[in-house]
Amino acid sequence: MSATTTPVQKNTGDKKLIFTILGLSCLGILCVLCAFTGAVFAVAYFEEQSLDTNDTTFDFNIDTSNDTSDFFNNSDDGVKTITANGDTAEAEGHKVTILSTELDYQTDDFFAEPDAGNQLFVVEVRIENTSSENITANPFNFTLYDSKENSYTYNFFGAEPSLGVEVLGENKSTEGYVTFEVPSDETDFVLQYEPSFFSEEIIEFNL
């Protein structure tokens, strides 16, 4: 009677696990090498493309002074100042005449009342077109300066009838009041008139 032989089963699970671990390890090492190589090339590329900032100088100096003396000396920017000899002066076809002035102007208009410590200074003007082309009369073309060279622009509320924005044909004229709000202790003023934003001439009246 022959003996019965029981087959011996091979334990293949451990081998599969070992091969799986080895494969994953190799794949991980390969990924790390690829990432490292890519990083090296990226650094080299950006170093080559980078800008040399050693020769770049930025000037952040800002002039914060309140000096307005440049408004009274226009020779540097090519603008000519015409000082009026009397009440009338002309520049670029704009003939401007000062008809009257009133300091500490009083009004019942709530919106025109000056702030505490201030007063209203009213100038009555006439603007005439002496050129062959149309011109624009505009109260905002006037700027007032006090003895300390502080500047003041046209105050919308003030004496009536105020000077309006108006297109004037040849030989046409318009007139009205231009009101400024100024400190109560100021009495000496200079009034400048600029025919337009791009004007090369400015009229100046000593009031």
Automatic annotation (TrEMBL):
Q: What keywords would UniProt list here?
A: Membrane, Signal, Transmembrane, Transmembrane helix
* Cleaved signal peptide residues: none
Q: Which organism is the protein's source? A: Candidatus Dojkabacteria bacterium
Q: A single Pfam family, by name?
A: DUF4352
Enumerate the transmembrane spans.
21-46
Protein known as: DUF4352 domain-containing protein
Q: Which residues form the DUF4352 domain?
A: 86-201
Sorted alphabetically, which Gene3D superfamilies does this protein's record hold? 2.60.40.1240
